Amino acid sequence: MCAAWGLVSGLTGAVQNFVGLAVCRVFLGFTEAAFFPGAVFLLSMFYEKQKMALRTAILYSGSQIGVSVAHFPTAIIANGRTPSAVSSPWPSSSSREHMASAAGDGCSSLKEP
Length: 113
Prior knowledge:
The protein is mainly alpha-helical. It has helices spanning about 1-10, 20-30, 35-45, 50-70, 70-80, 85, 95-105.
């Protein structure tokens, strides 16, 4: 199953249009569907029943944290920006000025100092 996932993931780079990407993502979903149940089964072989809830929670939490943290390096690589520019809530000072002028005097704190 891991080899099939690797093959489908590798073939994602050869996609040329949206339909191909959608089909590739469907096949990738089929191959990824076995990973979490397989990991829980693997944990159940090594840990007793009383410790399984904590171990499964750690596995699931680690997966969610990894997905949420992975967006930062991806954005840095894709945009060629520094980490401070990626984590900034405003892309540029000009957008701050446009929003402040569009909102009126109530948002004067958004303007540049």
